[in-house]
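FORM 7B: Structural annotation worksheet

SECTION A. Query
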Amino acid sequence: MKYHLHKIINFDPGDTIKVDFRGSAFVAFMDDENYERYIGDFEYDFFGKEVSESPFNIVPPEEGRWHLVIEHKEIPEEMKVQVKIVTEL
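SECTION B. Predicted structure
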């Protein structure tokens, strides 16, 4: 299994995630099925990308329950990440 940070988040319309970290990372949203495939090292679908500049804002593809996955590309043991949900008023 890949070393990663994982959080399940329930999104409402207008929610954005602000991710702040050092270095570069893979930041993605996955549904339940694709997260299970990801941790099992199988082919999976995701919404996200490699990010090299922080902070980075990402909006889920639709409201509801999503797995937020952050996979650091440098030294995972020292990964420090701050995640905030920003709601549009």
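SECTION C. Observations
Residues 5-87 form one domain. The longest helix spans residues 32-39.

SECTION D. Sign-off
Analyst initials: ____
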